[in-house]
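Could someone model 5-O-phosphono-beta-D-ribofuranosylamine with this protein?
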Amino acid sequence: MKKLTGNINIGVFISGRGSNLKELIRYSKKNNTNWKIKLVISNKKEAKGLIYAKKNKIQNYAIEKKKPEFEKKSLSILKKNKINLLCLAGFMRILSNEFIKKCKFKIINIHPSLLPKYKGLNTHERAIKAGDKYAGSTVHYVTAKLDSGKKILQTKVKIFKADNPNTLAKRVLKAEHQIYPKAVDIVCKKII
Ligand code: GRF
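Reply:
Sure, complex below.
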């Protein structure tokens, strides 16, 4: 990959709430990072995360299309805007192999489990049912295989006896907000 100088342009894909997106925006502004969120794309029009993007005057797009069309449009937007890194933040769609190959930049994702445990959905419920002592979250590179790319950062959260999937999810989410921006820092140091 070509080394860059100056600002690293980040694109973020979301599908909903966007609290991780919000945290990435907050962190990059507060710390005057060498990366900035240049644009946000959602596959859902009603995604709350789009509101943060608008408030922060970040280009934002809602592309409610089937996967092939979504990917085609998104890729063209990402290229046009010279995006250097794509962050998935609560993006509830599996990207196709072709899309991943066509992206000439890295893609990273945040997943609410201690990967390699609990790939896919309902991670908190599965961790509680299994009687695990810890849950957590992992930021990892995106590859064609779901939730399986190399780990960048991981954070552990204790599971208490009284926990249910909702209480645990809240605690894990707080921890996610801590690690995602730091993981972006790590990845961007490698890009520069
Ligand atoms: C997070 O728990 C993340 O790990 C998962 O989806 C959730 C997104 O939350 N991939 P938000 O939209 O960033 O608030």
